[in-house]
Amino acid sequence: MERPRWLDEREQSAWRGYRRMRRLLDLELARELMRDAGLSEPDYDVLSDLAETPDQRLRLSELADRMLWSRSRLSHHLTRMQQRGLVTREECAADGRGAVVALTAEGRRAVEAAAPGHVAAVRRHLIDLLTPDEIAALDALTHRVVDHLTDEGRSLR
Amino acid sequence: MERPRWLDEREQSAWRGYRRMRRLLDLELARELMRDAGLSEPDYDVLSDLAETPDQRLRLSELADRMLWSRSRLSHHLTRMQQRGLVTREECAADGRGAVVALTAEGRRAVEAAAPGHVAAVRRHLIDLLTPDEIAALDALTHRVVDHLTDEGRSLR
DNA sequence: GGCGGATTGATGACATGTCAACCAGATGGC
DNA sequence: GCCATCTGGTTGACATGTCATCAATCCGCC
Fold this sequence. Notes:
Order of helices and strands of chain A: HHEHHEEHH
Strand content of chain A: 5-15%
Largest interface: A-B, 51 and 50 residues
Oligomer: homodimer
Strand order of the largest sheet of chain A: 1-3-2
Largest sheet of chain A: 3 strands, antiparallel
Shape of chain A: globular
Number of strands of chain A: 3
């Protein structure tokens, strides 16, 4: 903390670029997803995680961990999605405290309708703008940062 | 939209890595910033944008544009920051409707106290984990995506 | 000069996210 | 078997962000 090493010009530029991209990309993807499919990004993430799962259902805590959400956030969000008929809650046979979220037929229809457009948007605004080398670099670098953050978290707590 | 081109494995992995990094990095940086300086990331962004400005003050709309925030969001956030004594609002001489946000002495002290630690965190969790080539790639790629999104926005509207 | 439409910023209602408290059920030591 | 403790999930209060609306002012044009 003493004698801070500031960012040099390149680093500064990359950091700012990253944050700007983050914000703009997010806005645009959310905007298109809402316009074309009537879903928010969090909605879409919940639905697609569920859809990828063998049985279309997951323990609440399992889903929360995958999404890096707090249980509370997930619980609130699910009650809203439940009211819209996209998911249901079921009791968990194995653990009396537990709850399981399941995709409804309507929820499944919603993701399937949304997915092609959303993937296309991700391509259009990000993936197709990058060279293969850049994709590889992004892949490597993001995973390294993620590993660093999760290892550190694990070892410190 | 017809015949969607899904992401191949590499692309998928990069996209997931990006989103995971985004989330984890954000959480960690926000956590440290709050713990060490008592500021949220939005607070810090407002303060550091103001601090970089020659006169420590900016038109509200100018600041909103730089930050890619809605005016409404900025206005709400400023009233909260104003109550904490970090900024003040002034009338704008040039435009009777306008308002100018100015950093207070306390606001200046807050950013200056927060900056070294925050930069160090950005280094520790991101920049110092990347090779020079990766920094350059990140710089290039993020700016290309940003340009694409802003050009498109400009030409469509 | 003055009218009509655009722009600036504030505001209130509402959606979403966070945090702390809580309950029910599981788990482990004795 | 029983108590203390832990865990999974829910809930309510509150912070934050979004959206639509509003009043004041500016600007272009007659």
